[in-house]
Amino acid sequence: MADYVHPEILVSTAWVDEHKHDPNVRIVESDEDVLLYYQGHVPGAVRIDWQNDLQDQLVRDYISKEQFEKLCSEKGIANDTTVVFYGDKNNWWACYAFWVFKLFGHENCLLMNGGRKRWEADGRPWAKEDEPKYPATTYTAKEPTSAIRAFKDEVLKHMKQGKQLVDVRSPGEFTGELLHMPDYPQEGALRGGHIPGAVNIPWAWAANEDGTFKSAKELEKLYVKTNGLKRRGTTIAYCRIGERSSHTWFVLHYLLGFGNVKNYDGSWTEWGNTVGAPIEKGHPVNTIAEPASKKTEEIAEPETV
To answer: What are the residue numbers of the active site?
Structure first.
């Protein structure tokens, strides 16, 4: 991990195993499959549900600053707590939770490289008891930052200026052949296609078969050398609701050192339904073939504990 620009942001399963009872560390599991935590989780880990815990239930937005403070307090997270995230699907939702914590200014955030898949592969034990209860804290969050989040009007301006846009969805979604991920239900987009000028680099291409991130050299080749992304300037990543693009946001910012990366969490469910928003269909001229090591863009295999 030493070749990454910010190797300190990733920790191994061994590190987590050694620190699972550290009072200054809180391990957080965030999954797509909400039942996985109850089948088995890292000992001492708490659970954060991306939809029920991080999303406002009445407004299409994240929870408020006050609600985030309450969530952290209930999970035993203080302002100086080191929070380690992990989850299923190559840490897809773990990166999303990590990103939301950064929105509210939490400083000490780490990611367990490989997530649940790597923990299982390393033969480490799962806990199956109820979610642990920790003493409540007094948490003070910052106002949500716009430094890592892009809204539709900003994306439109960004697009018109010809700046970097990364569509991390499957090739079928990018071309407009699909309105949703393969094997997933339709989530409300009326039009298929992509934002004009975007390059398609599916999120899962950044991961190895064991769920860990590819090497810095491989990521450099994928994003910079092959697809021509530049570290300078602003890069905006998007998918359908911002979950897959948070994984790519993590890769570009922390592993490759892109200075200004934003996640457009409105993504295609907003853009594809917006009156007047321009779209393109089909493959761009510089379409990049899928790496031979990846059979599908999405990781859909079941996990067992």
So the answer is: 239
Q: Which fold has domain 152-271?
A: Oxidized Rhodanese; domain 1 (3.40.250)
* Residue (of 272, 219, 262) closest to 242 by Cα position: 262
From CA 101, how far away is CA 10, in angstroms rounded?
A: 16
The C-alpha atoms of residue 67 and residue 117 are separated, in whole angstroms, by: 31
Three-state DSSP at 197 gives: coil
Q: What is the pLDDT along the chain (305 residues), one digit of tens a residue?
A: 559 999 999 999 999 999 999 999 999 999 999 899 999 999 999 999 988 999 888 887 899 999 999 999 999 999 999 999 999 999 999 999 999 999 999 999 999 999 999 999 999 999 999 999 999 999 999 999 999 999 999 999 999 999 999 999 999 999 998 876 666 665 567 889 999 999 999 999 999 999 999 999 999 999 999 999 999 999 999 999 899 999 999 999 999 999 999 999 999 999 999 999 999 998 764 444 455 444 444 443 333 33
Side-chain-side CA neighbours of residue 221 (13 Å): 6
CATH topology for the 7-121 domain: Oxidized Rhodanese; domain 1 (3.40.250)
